[in-house]
Design goal:
- The structure is a single chain.
- The protein is mainly alpha-helical and 299 residues long.
- The chain has one domain: ABC transporter involved in vitamin B12 uptake, BtuC, CATH 1.10.3470.
- It is 72% helix and 2% strand.
- The chain has 12 helices and 2 strands, in the order H-H-H-H-E-E-H-H-H-H-H-H-H-H.
- The chain has a two-stranded antiparallel sheet.
- Helix 1 (2-33) crosses helix 9 (225-236).
Length: 299
């Protein structure tokens, strides 16, 4: 029994890391510009499709570099053609703009890359690993793709943290996140900063798409994974990079444990809605999230 709990918990935590990868893209854009980018899921799908199709005719590392360049170009185009003309508009208008980008990216992705199911082969062993065999009889099963995804996500978070803390551009991004007008008054170019943020978000979407595509196959249902990032953001906070990681771990572990140990009692299917119910309950007590900043307006 203990071995089963440990195995389910580890599997949930590793799945949560993959959710966090998607949530990071939302956090980066919302933190710097205040825009909730509903198109992040479409970015993940588009990047994964491009990587999978180009990986069929060239080495994966080269396909990754080209796909990264494409995602930077897409991010630049979205910021320049869609969002920049809507500067200073209401938040709901910007949200609807990203919703329109989502449907455009879906159709454009099918037109360019096709709509079949594609595979991304990272060259990892297909057989699962077994750990803690000396502690539990038979050991604990561990899928290699989940372990690699966790390592990649951890490295990406460390790289983003160093970028924000150690580089002049990163410090400028933090200044813009704290106060747009104050940052602009000291000479920080907001348009250039937002382009950088959207480009970084595109790279994050590519990494997330690569990991999810290797795990589930690249298909248009992959975009639904982005919806799991919403409860992750609610738990962790919309402006916190560490919050995206912690929220993903909570959601991943919680839904797996609920599905295995509570699902049989209620007929199963808990994994599909547990994250949203947890987020809804969390909103009642701490709407800003675990790491989000409490906003107090005095009138």
């Amino acid at each position: 029994m203990i071995a089963q709990v440990v195995e389910v918990l580890i599997g949930g935590l590793l799945a949560g890391v993959l959710y966090s990868l998607v949530a990071l893209g939302f956090v980066l854009i919302f933190k710097a510009s205040g825009v909730f980018n509903f198109a992040q899921g479409a970015f993940v799908l588009f990047a994964a499709l491009g990587l999978a199709r180009m990986g069929e005719v060239m080495p994966l590392w080269l396909a990754f570099i080209i796909a990264a360049a494409i995602m930077v170009a897409v991010a630049f185009a979205v910021e320049r053609l869609v969002l920049r003309p809507l500067v200073n508009q209401e938040g709901i208008i910007l949200f609807m703009a990203t919703l329109g980008v989502t449907f455009f990216m879906d159709g454009f992705g099918q037109l360019v890359w096709g709509s079949d199911i594609y595979k991304i082969d990272l060259g990892l062993p297909q057989d699962p690993w077994f750990i803690l065999e000396g502690v539990f009889e038979g050991g604990v099963l561990l899928p290699p793709i989940d372990v690699v995804a966790a390592v990649v996500a951890g490295a990406l978070v460390v790289a983003l943290a160093l970028f924000f803390q150690r580089t002049p551009t990163g410090r400028a991004l933090r200044a813009v996140a704290d106060d747009h007008q104050a940052a602009q008054s000291i000479g920080i170019p907001l348009n250039r900063i937002w382009i950088i943020v959207w480009a970084v978000s595109g790279i994050v979407a590519l990494v997330a798409g690569m990991m999810w595509g290797a795990k589930l196959g690249v298909q248009f249902s992959l975009q639904l994974v982005a919806l799991k990032a919403l409860p992750v953001l609610i738990l962790g906070g919309f402006t916190s990079v560490p919050g995206a990681i912690v929220g993903g771990l909570i959601i991943g572990a919680g839904e797996k444990l609920a599905e295995v140990f509570i699902g049989p009692l209620v007929g199963g299917g808990i994994e599909n809605w547990f994250a949203y119910m947890l987020a809804l309950g969390f909103l009642l007590f701490r709407p800003q999230g675990l790491f989000g900043e409490r906003i107090i307006e005095r009138v």
